[in-house]
Structure formats: C-alpha cells, structure tokens
# Entry
Amino acid sequence: MSDRTTAISPVEEVVAPSEPGTDTASAPEPAPRRRSAALFAALRWTAAVVVFGALGTTVAYAVTDRERTDIPTLATESDGRWTYPPLARPTLPAGAVGPFGRGNRGAIHYADLESLLLPAPEGSRPDLTLDGENSRVPVSRFLQEYEKGVRGTMATDLRDNGLRHIVARGWTMADDGTSTRVYLLRFHSTASTLFFFNTHLRGPKEAPLKVTDVEKVSSADETFPSVGVHGTETYIYDEAAPRGPVHVRHAYVGAGDTLALVVQSRKGSAAAVPFAQTVILQNQLLG
# Structure
C-alpha cells in the first residue's frame, strides 16, 4: 500500500486598507476568548502532514504555507476527494483582525457570515431547501437536523442565549448521491457559543443528540485526521453499526463566536475522505 501526498494550500486572508488617519487598534474589543482545544491544536497554515485511511487506501495530506489560494484537488480519483473552487478568506473591515488575531480577545468574526461558508464542489446539485437570501435560514430549518423531541429546548436556548443568525449551504453529488449540509451559527459572544454547544451538542465519546437519519447512535470518530486550526474545537462523529439504510457522518467546529455543523450522508455507506476534506476546509475558513 503506497502513500500519496497532496498539498492543500492555505486560504488567504484579505484585509481592507485603513482610511487615512484610522487607528488600526480601534476595532471592537470583545470579551476574553476561550483557550483552543488540544484535540485539533496542531495546524495553522504551517507545514503539517495528516495521514488517514479510507476505503482501504492510505492518503497523506500535506498542509503547507504556500502563497496561493487554490486547493489542488483535481487528480484524486483514487482517494475520492472532491474538487472545490479556489478558497480565500473574505475582506475584513478596516482595522479589524481575524477571530484569533492579536487584539481580538473575544474571537469575533468581523467578516460577513455567508462569506465564511464553504462553497459547493464541482459535480454537485444545490439543496434548494437551503437556498435562502444571503444563504440565511431560519432556526426551524437548522433544527430539522435533530429529533423532534429536542427541538423545542434547543430553540429556546438559541433565542435566549445570543444567537444572531444562521447561514447554510447544501448539495448532493451527482455521481454517487452523497448529500452534504453545512450550517454556520453566529452568536453574540464566544461564551454564548460555548453554552449552546456544551449544553446540547458536545459528547466526548458519543454524540448526545441524533442527527437526521441516524438509526441508533453516532460515536466519536477517532480515525479522523488529528489536525485543526489554531483557536478552534472540532468534534467528529460517525454513525455506529448496525446502521439503517443511510450512513451519516457529522461534525461540529467551534470557532469563537461561530459554530459550524457539517452533515454528510449517503445510502449504503458514506465515504470518509470527502467528509474529512469538507470538514477541514470549513474549519480553515473559520480559523
């Protein structure tokens, strides 16, 4: 079995120039931020290699500090990666810094939330149920990802604990029917994000809540590549066997004031490689 190494380029961050006489230190100074998780604390656009297995193939991903925004995922038939469009972090307001930049003690994203949402890959059809204006969706649409019995409590906590808005994007791959949905929830503070995540979604060994189409339980996926972006927390779950007709994988990424949910499913079996690729890229956009 041979390893393959493919470079995944960094996402560039573009900052708007300051107006003449503008003090770059005058950007809003939010509340203190939380410490990053040890689970995914090893990666920040510096040289790193991640090796994980999928469908009997060992794949090596090298994340390097290269000056380009495109992510070369074209010749990947053997490992199953998808081809995403070139990625770049959005322009920030003058004087603002990224969520984990110096001076941003509250880990606040100052970019428009839609601009942080991962685009759909080539060869996919859009999920029209997530086709809201500026990609925004109501709380009720997000809660459809969970069992009916828990939606009321979750809705109350979202309303009472600082949710600002939700954006989402979804797609289905034309070749094999794999369905993906990505949600970004922005809160008023990192503390609000942590409260909601810890109350409802965090589970070190098993996901406390079942997402749609999970038959019994989703377990923490310890085979997922052990890398992340500085300042973020990532929890990865894979539906445990025996499964129903649909295999579901899902992940949460906590990044300061923003929480991401990535759900990927397919009838029969959902491949590990495109799921890992999707989660890593969304994580990078939020870091």
Notes: DSSP finds four helices and twelve strands in the chain.
